[in-house]
Write a structure and sequence with these properties.
Layout: E1 3-7, E2 10-11, H1 17-28, H2 38-53, H3 56-63, H4 67-81, E3 86-89, E4 92-95, H5 97-113, H6 116-129, E5 130-135, H7 140-154, E6 159-164, H8 167-175, E7 181-186, E8 193-201, E9 203-207, E10 228-231, H9 237-248, E11 254-258, H10 262-270, E12 276-279, E13 291-294, E14 301-308, H11 315-333
Parallel strand pairs: 1-6, 5-6, 5-7, 10-11
Antiparallel strand pairs: 1-2, 3-4, 7-14, 8-14, 9-12, 9-13
């Protein structure tokens, strides 16, 4: 069993050999116009053979081509990459310092290319073994990790890639088949996507513990008209919803601070620097640091599963979905005071 986790596209643990190889090869397999050049890669392999065999003749015999053809390949390579690779004295070739440095840097990639059949076999097995799950950050600790822990305990031979990324990256991952299943905010409109509702959470006012409304069971947005607000970016789902609520209430919020993350928003509220409009999906640490008061008549935030419409849910993915549903039910059970 292996769990590979990436946070917003950055790998946190684990190594994927083939993807690493591709990244290295992208460096040595670029022609001057930016497109891959298979002949250049072939010539780099030949270059390495010349240096390791010690002569043009030995390398040509090994490659089953003439010395003249191999010499022309090296000449074209030198012109293409702008490096002088050999010092020529009659029929003798001596590698330059630039040649040795080039080979030193690309040697790992050349070695991996010699394993191409082995690597290809590994890749053919991956789709059968690894389940790729893309999740928005705020759904990780609340519902995903408990479910994923149970899943891995039940299926010790199952590899999982957990990709933690924002809404726009989730959309891209699902569409380009970089993940098998996604968990994010809804709605997510696209003709090639289908979604399944998981839960809806109330929109709440996030208040400091000693706020005058902290003990209220609910409040109207207009009651916060004189408060200083800590706001999230207007291009986020929460930011968009908050602005719509302000517009409908005829309010222009007093902006105290703009932050990019819900965690930061809650931290500043806890310190008494303002109030915020969020949904009830709070980071664990904030539950005892701020007060959540539902806003009357406010729209709810919905979350759910997202996948491509032309792909069926596998039995393995379906089982993980069931565990996430169970985990979500338990999570919602801790929020009964906010459900209206």
């Amino acid at each position: 069993m292996r769990l590979i986790m990436r946070v917003r596209g950055i790998r946190a643990s684990g190594v994927a050999i083939f993807r690493s190889t591709l990244r290295k090869n992208a460096i040595i397999n670029q022609s001057n116009n930016g497109r891959g050049d298979p002949m250049k890669l072939k010539t780099l392999t030949a270059l390495n053979m010349i240096v390791t065999r010690g002569s043009l003749n030995s390398a040509a015999q090994e490659l089953n081509i003439s010395e003249a053809a191999l010499s022309r390949q090296i000449t074209r390579l030198e012109a293409s990459i702008g490096l002088k690779l050999f010092s020529r004295s009659g029929r003798t070739l001596s590698p330059t310092g630039e040649c040795i440095e080039l080979l030193r840097r690309i040697e790992p990639s050349l070695q991996e290319l010699e394993r191409i059949n082995e690597v290809a076999s590994e890749i053919r097995r991956l789709p059968l073994r690894r389940l790729r799950l893309s999740v928005m950050p705020r759904l990780v600790s609340a519902v995903t990790l408990p479910a994923l822990s149970s899943f891995l305990n039940e299926q010790p031979d199952q590899d999982v890639s957990l990709i933690v990324e924002g809404r726009s990256l989730i959309l891209r991952s699902v569409l380009n088949r970089s993940c098998d299943l996604a968990l994010g905010s809804l709605p997510m409109h696209h003709s090639n996507l289908v979604s399944e509702h998981l839960c809806s959470l109330p929109t709440v006012a996030v208040l400091p513990p000693n706020h005058r409304f902290a003990d209220r069971s609910s409040l109207k947005l207009g009651e916060l008209a004189d408060e200083a607000f800590i706001l999230l970016p207007p291009n986020t789902m929460i930011g968009i919803r908050a602005q719509q609520m302000f517009d409908e209430a005829g309010m222009t919020p007093i902006s105290r601070l703009h932050v990019s993350r819900v965690d930061d928003c809650c931290a500043f509220v806890a310190k008494g620097h303002g109030v915020a409009i969020l949904d009830a999906l709070m980071p664990d640490w904030a539950k005892n640091s701020v007060r959540l008061v539902p806003i009357e008549s406010a729209p709810k935030s919905s979350f759910g599963f997202i996948r491509r419409s032309d792909e069926e849910v596998t039995q393995t993915a379906g089982h993980l979905m069931d565990l996430i549903k169970d985990s979500t039910t338990r999570f919602l059970g801790t929020m009964t005071s906010l459900q209206h």
